[in-house]
Amino acid sequence: MVVQLSRLTQGIPSTLLRLLVLAMLRGAGKHDYDASNSLLRQYDFIVVGSGSAGGVVAARLAEVSSWQVLLLEAGGPPPPESTVPAYNIALLGSDVDWNYRTVPQKHGLRGFVNHTGHFPLGRVLGGTSTINWLLYVRGNRRDYDNWETMGNPGWSYRDVLKYFRKAEDYRGTRNIQTASQYHGRGGPLVVEDKTWGAPVTNAILRAGLQLGYDVIDANGPEQIGFTIPDLTTRDGRRGSTAVTYIQPASSSRPNLHVAFNSHVTQILFGENKRAIGVRFEHHGEVRTVLARREVVVSAGVVGSPQLLMVSGVGPAQHLRQHGIPVVQDLPGVGENLQDHLAVFGLTWTLNKGVSSNLLRLASPSHIKNYVHNNQGPLTSPVGIEVVAWSPAAEGDPLWPEVEYLFSSLTLALDYGLTLASAAGFRRDLFKTYFKSIKGQEGMSIYPALLRPKSRGTIRLRSRRPKDPPLIDPNYLSHPDDVTALIRGIRFALSVGNTSALREEHGARFHDQVLPGCEREAPGSDSYWSCYIRHMVSSAYHPAGSCKMGPSSDPLSVVDHTLRVRGVSGLRVVDASIMPVVASGNTNAAVIMIGEKAADDIKKDWGASIQSL
Fold it and tell me: How far apart, in Å, are the Cα atoms of 383 and each of 35, 133, 232, 342, 497?
């Protein structure tokens, strides 16, 4: 969420970076489970997409030894640098990212080139869990109770907590008081403490205490407060679903086949609109594989609606515009797109030595410490120190409306050499706004809107499956989103003004007037509204484009067991099914969705499931 920092490593050729990591980590990047050239003609289940949900579903279905399961992934195996948490900066915008961009936004992104934003999603085994910032945040209990209230039985917090716990192997030490009730032990997904932080970290926690906010377990009973985030790492190394679910399952279960570089281009339907298989491209060759029981689409918030539509399932008028024969008219496919919105650019300078320094990543001493002890700054995503949630101004105060990411980096740290273009800012805006603090150490606070009212769409660019679709999040189209983010900015300013930061570490807010907002009174609501429309972009948590809902909801795409409406033998299992995006980083919630969906599928086909 900090920014697209991948260009920071452009001075280091990718091959050299990978050689460095391979030297650091013996065996990193090796794989021997690609079944692309030895596939069966038919499987019981075909899972499309190996991300945070698809990898879970495939691994869990393969627990039934009599079922043959195929997992198709458009990308390749995780690159070796993905193993090191701090090297995630080399992954965004790389060849393991789909590198999607939004269409130009009417209501926002005015400070970004062409009013468009990067929309990163993983194109690699493990999907976005292989390129993300590794924060383990489940969201708020009220998110899931709300899902059930919206007509989705079985999705209340009480129902889904057991699946969060089933997935988790909690090895943290900070949340011992809540661990037994809210955390799991022995699951595939290792969750650890973030063990390294910049010196400013504890001051941020003290700032929260000075404002009356406790240090909390963000995945415990309530969410309002400050915390050092838990990470999905195992002994300081990335714990993507590729590492935690797919690799162990494929090495121990011969009934699970994994095919890399297999881009699914069509779902095949037989009589009575039943999904009977898929067509995919593998190194230029078009191949077909059939499913005896079901096809499970876990291609993500962009890929799942796109695949449904090019296969004839979606808004009939839109499909006909592209000459696609309609299998099932489902108006909700590609609708209801949501994303957490983050305010970029809120910056404080600090005394020298208390924030992060990017050069530490290449320090021989830190590399040695990481290789031999699994310790040091390489164990954590770059710059992430603290996460916090503030109460909602309206409704239930314990259901937060804004999340705050505290980073020990500023966007001007590198003198504008790489970060400006990496973030996508207009060069003229960046140069003027950050000119006075270039190269200075400091921190940034990113308020992120958790429950946006704006809704966008995924639409086909053409009928060709490999053409990137049109992604229109429709950011800031609802005025309430701007109002909520203004409250978030004011809260961030109050944190930066505490004595813990101001007096102890010399925190000074960068109060330069943003270019384009000169006509507004600095600090007024109208100024911050202008600032938001220039400086807000994605927090990288899209959801909702294949909405789960009851049959009475005209935009519902799947039912509460994630079966696609109007057809049979087909489910969607990923973040696209969220009726409303969860109040936190979405990776943990999507893994939970995969766990629950696997049990629902097993139940429907008469297989035994683990008691929870």
Answer: 38, 10, 16, 16, 20
